[in-house]
Amino acid sequence: MKTKQKSIGSFDAKTHLARVLDEVQRGVEFIITKRGKPVAKIVKYTDLNEHIELPEIIRQFDKIRNSVKGKVDIKGYIAEGRKH
Question: Which class in CATH covers the domain with range 4-82?
Fold first, then answer.
């Protein structure tokens, strides 16, 4: 499911914070802008235990890297990914 994302100015975010938080609680993400430029993002809080810690990410990356034999065409993979 794709997360809905909205943009809101800092003044409006402050003025309507309760409404913004209600929407965030329902899964909407807000980009807070200041003078039209993005400065912050408000997202629904998730338990930190749900996230993979950096050492675990590195361990998984090393496992994948060690399983690959021969040359890897990174530019080719990037180009292929852009097609999808």
Answer: alpha beta
Which tokens hold the place of 19?
A: 């409404």
Q: What is the pLDDT of residues 62-78, one digit of tens each?
A: 888 888 877 878 888 88
Q: How far apart are the first and last CA of the chain?
A: 17
What are the φ/ψ torsions at residue 14 (nearest 5 degrees)? -65, -45
**CA–CA gap between residue 20 and residue 73 (Å, rounded):** 44
Q: How far are the Cα atoms of 3, 23, 26, 78 from residue 6, in angstroms, in the given order?
A: 10, 10, 13, 29
pTM: 0.54
Report which DSSP code applies to 61. H
Q: Which residues are CB-contacts of 27 (< 8 A; sequence separation ≥ 6)?
A: 3, 4, 44
